[in-house]
Amino acid sequence: MRWRHEIYSRYPADGQSGPFHDTLPHVVFRRKTLPWERSLDESRGSDQVPPLPWMALLVLGEEELSEATFSAKALADVVHLPEGFRGPEIGLDPWETGKDGTEAQSCTVLDLPLGMFRRLAPRRDELRWLAHARLAGTRHKEDLYGIGDGWFSVILANRLPQDDARNLAVLVSLEGHLDLLGDTEPDMREGTLLRLVVLDKWAFVSRGPTFEERLRHLSESEESWLRVAGGQDASDPRVATALALGYVPMPHRLRDGSQTLSWYRGPFVPVDVPAPSRPEVFVNPDEALRYDGATGMFDTSLAAAWQLGRLLALQNQEFARALDQAESGQVARVLLAEAERRLQALDKDRPEADEAEARRIARLGEAARLHRDDLMAALALEWSL
């Protein structure tokens, strides 16, 4: 199974740093039945409700990483182990070992002390609470492969990350290790090292201020930005008013390469903002910049919204295709062909009252001959006739 294609997301993300000390790491799969598609307890059959998931998410701290070893092994080396190792008691098909003439399959394995596994892994009664399926709305999600109808499955870790340290989340297969998940200590004579099949792994760092701490220091940070980058005084009533309206000072690089500090406010604001009586049309984002004479700074809110809207529009395939057709003159050619068709269909012997219709169609044809940059003017001319 190609595991990377089955995984929709991981949290915390790979390489991310943040205050994750109170968050259980988890992994989300695109297939809602994946954690239960293999049986962990063969003796129970299919009557176990809810069934036990056959995988678990382990969280290793920095100290534990020094005792863990990752390596690539053939599947035969997972079940046929050297002395001192303990592995899963599972059978392999001929195609997995290469005995049928095909290439032998390989995988990533994790070797760690058996006692450490007992400390890290969930107990048998805990497994059912660490896996679930959920239905999520996909309307505002990125259109990735495999989202389907919005059903996902989730595997949760049973352990919080170590704070102020690097952590490694490892998704492992529990097949053949059910006896190690009970309350009874296993026979250590069978092997002091355990070999696990690794399905996925990623690292993150649990370090940094919480969201609440960031908000509490937001005003102080704004004042620091104003003093250092803009030379503004946060005690100035004009600056205080801008901050109260939801504006924040942000670094702004202008087209000539110079840098300044400008105001920015997102779409979610703490005050009522009246809608404009007539929407403005901007050719580029610079036209949407507004200069605040009171503080001597630009307001980039509309410009940023314009740029975001353009990117979202171009992401829509139908819109991008229509825009390309307009820019290439295809729409103008269609208008011209339609005008010529109407002219040819006119009856030459009709009364003079139809001359207005002929003039209207002739003007449409003339509009269609305009340069493609004036295509919108041609459409407006057609609508006004």
In short:
With 385 residues, this protein is α+β, with helices and mostly antiparallel strands.
What does this structure look like?
By secondary structure, the chain is an alpha+beta fold. The protein contains 14 helices and 15 strands. It folds into 3 domains: 204 residues, no CATH class; 85 residues, no CATH class; 68 residues. Helix content is 31%, strand content 22%. β12 and β13 form a beta hairpin. The longest helix has 16 residues. The model has no long low-confidence stretch (mean pLDDT 77).
N-to-C span: 63 Å
In which range does the helix fraction lie?
A: 25-40%
Strand coverage percent: 15-25%
Could you give a short account of the major beta sheet? Answer: 7 strands, mixed
Say how many strands there are.
15
Global shape: flat
Q: What count of helical segments does DSSP give?
A: 14
What structural class should be given to the helix and strand makeup?
A: alpha+beta
What is the residue-averaged pLDDT? 77
- Quaternary assembly: single chain
The sequence of SSEs as H and E is: HEEEEHEHEHEHHEEEEHHHEEEEHHHHH
CA-atom Rg in angstroms: 33 Å
Low-confidence stretches: none
Domains counted in the coordinates: how many?
3
Topology summary:
Blueprint: H1 3-6, E1 7-11, E2 17-18, E3 26-29, E4 55-60, H2 62-65, E5 69-74, H3 76-79, E6 85-86, H4 94-97, E7 106-113, H5 114-120, H6 124-127, E8 131-135, E9 151-156, E10 165-173, E11 193-206, H7 211-216, H8 218-230, H9 237-244, E12 248-253, E13 259-264, E14 290-292, E15 297-299, H10 301-315, H11 317-327, H12 330-345, H13 355-368, H14 375-384
Parallel strand pairs: 2-11, 6-11
Antiparallel strand pairs: 1-3, 3-9, 4-10, 5-7, 7-11, 8-9, 10-11, 12-13, 14-15
